[in-house]
């Protein structure tokens, strides 16, 4: 993208758009805007950077204490968590420096569910509906092995909620727009010794579901049905399509 005008460099106070970003209307709308990622996840940062965005990093302090059981549809849980994260960061930055408020805050939350929901593309799940449970980070190696044995030779569902908070004139001064992305992860029928070796690597101890598809955990996976980046932690394709929709349909999107 060309940030030069009349042979002079245009200096921007804020700019998250990198030179290799695709020259689309929604990306051009981000030039010169203060865009913030409400997460310190290196994986989300790297995914966005791959596609030409480098937002400022301001991790949310929202305590993820929402109860899974409060949601009739468990897929609403990561969306709600992402919204709380984004709003917390937006409101905090406005309080700290109202003259340099963010134009856009991106919040995200990824969860791993024990099995696919009926209706998900290519889902092998049949029979009566059984409520999906959220797989948290394992407590220890023993818990990690238990998780992987349960997932072994089976399918889990990864869901990421993404919420965008942007400035508007109407109270409370911002709008929230959200999406969710669902991806199926098929585990190979792995030998127990391979699962134990992976657990001993300790890679999965800090990951929801107890595995990292982009790391050593990839050897356990037979197939990914859907957005691979969603499993890593951020659904890039859906996010950029969402930006295009908001830029086309929301008259107040990034206009202040």
From TrEMBL:
Q: Which GO terms describe its molecular function?
A: nucleoside triphosphate diphosphatase activity
Instruction: Note the superkingdom of the native organism.
Output: Eukaryota
Which Pfam families is this protein grouped with? Answer: Maf
Cofactor dependence is on:
a divalent metal cation
Keyword list, A-Z: Hydrolase
InterPro entries to which the protein is assigned, alphabetical = ITPase-like_fam, Maf-like
Q: Which SUPFAM superfamilies does UniProt cross-reference here? A: ITPase-like (SSF52972)
Claim: Hydrolase is one of the keywords in the record: yes
Quote the HAMAP family the UniProt record gives.
Answer: Maf
Q: Which PANTHER family match?
A: BIFUNCTIONAL DTTP/UTP PYROPHOSPHATASE/METHYLTRANSFERASE PROTEIN-RELATED (PTHR43213), BIFUNCTIONAL DTTP_UTP PYROPHOSPHATASE_METHYLTRANSFERASE PROTEIN-RELATED (PTHR43213:SF5)
Q: What is this protein called?
A: Maf-like protein
